[in-house]
Amino acid sequence: MPKDYCPFCPGSGRVPEDYDLLIYPNDFPSLSIPPPRPVIKSGELYRVEEARGICDVVLYTPDHNASLSKLSLPHMERLVLLWRDRFRELSNREEIKYVFIFENKGEVIGVTMPHPHGQIYAFPFIPPRVKTELRSSREYMEEKGRCLFCTILAEEGKSRERVVFENESFLAFIPFYARYPYEVHVFSKPHLQSLEDFLEEQIRDLARILKLVVMKYDNLFGFPFPYMMVMHQAPTDGEDYSYYHFHIEFYPPHRSKEKIKYPASCEFGAGTFINDTCAEEKAKELRETPPWDM
Description:
- Helices cover about 30% and strands about 15% of the residues.
- It contains 6 helices and 9 strands.
């Protein structure tokens, strides 16, 4: 196989010769239908379940050298629509309880396939991190009578120090509780639970603010910025999650142009993230990094 061979590029024989966006079945899925037979039996202490689910690869473009920051706004809007349509398809499957949309970008994250792409995992359960958010959101609603995320939005909108950018539908900011120096979160301003709730203007505004955030990242130090981007939305198990709130989180590992923030003993061993800067300082850096609007 040639050194520069990419299965996601036209001409590879693996994808259509002409595509705009494409859902590509993961060649090495962690979840599948039908699932493989577990290699060990479930016990009273250690429970084993079948790895039932779906793993998609979302090819953003046939251009091998592109990225989210280089896609046109109309193309970005089509990507958001594809996410929404696939979310709808997967959420209608009885065995699927959570649809997780994400992107890993950059070698430092562990990406071995540089062609611009993201992924969608359809889980038969609610992932632990999301489950913790759901529990906290429900408890806050029961105690305070309002949405935790809407309260955070109001606080960020009032102080403005941690805000990076906003439009009519979304606010991008580095949260007070950020674990990484340039960790941007994007909250929907309307109280929405999932992509299923999006109107046309929210699709447009999400495409716009995501493109702007990743352009700021790339322009910050003058190179393609690595990151993990994760989308948190309501589960698809049919329960009431009106207390939850749609948002996207970016985890970029760089803490400066030359240095990486590596989670180490305090983070993994104690569950305590040490952030050697403050959100207000890094938000100011990103605000002052072009583009300022589009």
